[in-house]
Every structure is written in C-alpha cells, then in structure tokens.
Amino acid sequence: xxxxxxxxxxxxxxxxxxxxxxxxxxxxxxxxxxxxxxxxxxxxxxxxxxxxxxxxxxxxxxxxxxxxx
Length: 69
Hints:
This protein has no helices and 7 strands. The chain has strands at 12-17, 20-25, 32-35, 42-44, 51-52, 58-61, 64-67.
C-alpha cells in the first residue's frame, strides 16, 4: 500500500491478558500511538511498554488508524 514503507515488519504486538487487550510497540522506526476515547489525549507509545486498550480508543501505526471495538 501507499504507506507500507512507514510500517516496520515487526511494528507492534497486541496481547490479550486478564480479560483486557494491550498494545506494545516493538521498537518500530516510525512509532505507534494511541488516542484515548474518553479524554481525547493522544500520545506515542514507549518501546517495550504495554498499554491497556479501551473501547473507542484509536491505535495509530504510521498513517493507519485502527479503532478498538
């Protein structure tokens, strides 16, 4: 796709643990981010740190948005 060069081969991982979803950036070149549904804050993920996902959050991987449902 048009933005494929911005996404690393091992960019991020989603894990399901304790009845919750988590995302963790794997040291990607262009980073990953989250925009929280509740307060609209947007931030870049720190490498190797898991972040809990909530319904309505947006995951950003390069220019791609993924809605958590």
